[in-house]
Design brief:
Elements lengths: L10 E5 L4 E6 L4 H14 L1 H4 L3 E5 L9 H13 L3 E6 L3 H10 L3 E2 L34 H4 L4 E4 L7 E4 L4 E4 L7 E4 L3 E7 L2 E4 L9 E6 L3 E4 L2 E4 L12 E6 L2 E6 L1
Parallel strand pairs: 2-3, 3-4, 4-5, 6-8, 7-9, 8-10, 9-11, 10-12, 11-13
Antiparallel strand pairs: 1-2, 12-15, 13-14, 15-16
Length: 252
């Protein structure tokens, strides 16, 4: 089994579709995966305990065998998360999911490999065409949708999702509340819960908060969990944005 060069972490954990996180495995080491995920669940149980996750095997040049994948799924379960299937990938990933009886969480499955055209024996063989790239998701501006507004407090346990648009909250976001947008998020009040912008992968999305006290902020899957808010951010107006793979938080 071949994989790309190893890094320090066993996996990448990112938010994707609303309510589902993706665990992209970097090493087929079930024990190490358990230790890393269990540490993350312990650090932020409100966020990760019993979270629905998909297992992403796209880091591997050759897919692990079924026994190894079973062990990885059990590691996710033992850490306190709930695996719901495999992430989309090539036809080999789909075949593996079928053999194991697992759901395949796919958005642009057909874009990864071209269909093989039918030809009869008298038709000369041709080199297969390169797969067409997946169409880009429309931006909030391209979709022509205005921002979604919420007036008043977002209470603990409540979730608000702005699909294909920005979200503007005029009020507080309580501890244990969750606000999500495919575009940017603007909170004109105190953010004590969780805010996730760019939920479908928009890396240009931003989060603006007038009173920053968040449990978690995330943009396009890149997140930061706060056990204690840094003194230079607590209670201040803050902007969150991505710089490459790094999530930056600065005072306004």
């Amino acid at each position: 089994m071949n994989a790309r060069p190893e890094t320090g972490e066993v996996c990448d954990l990112r938010f994707g579709q609303v309510g589902i996180a993706s665990v992209r495995v970097r090493r087929a080491d079930a024990a190490a995966l358990y230790e890393e995920l269990e540490r993350r669940v312990r650090a932020a149980p409100q966020l990760f305990a019993r979270a629905a996750v998909v297992l992403d095997l796209s880091h591997f040049l050759d897919l692990p065998d079924e026994g190894t994948v079973d062990a990885l799924l059990e590691a996710v379960r033992s850490a306190g998360m709930l695996p719901v299937g495999l992430a989309y990938g090539t036809s080999a990933t789909e075949a593996l999911a079928r053999r194991m009886g697992l759901p395949l969480i796919a958005k642009f499955r057909a874009a990864y490999e071209p269909a093989q055209p039918h030809r009869d024996d008298n038709t000369p063989a041709q080199a297969p065409a390169a797969p067409a790239p997946a169409p880009p998701a429309p931006s909030v501006m391209e979709a022509g949708l205005g921002a979604q507004y919420h007036d008043g407090t977002v209470r603990s346990g409540q979730q608000i999702y702005a699909r294909d648009r920005d979200l503007v909250v005029v009020g507080a976001v309580a501890n244990g509340a969750e606000i999500i947008a495919d575009g940017s998020i603007h909170v004109y009040g105190s953010l004590r819960g969780r805010a996730m912008a760019g939920a479908q992968g928009d890396t240009a999305a931003r989060i603006h908060v007038s009173d920053f006290r968040a449990e978690l902020v995330a943009i396009a899957g890149h997140y930061r969990v706060f056990e204690q808010i840094p003194e230079d951010l607590a209670g201040h107006a803050v902007q969150c944005r991505l710089d490459g793979e790094k999530l930056l938080l600065t005072r306004l």
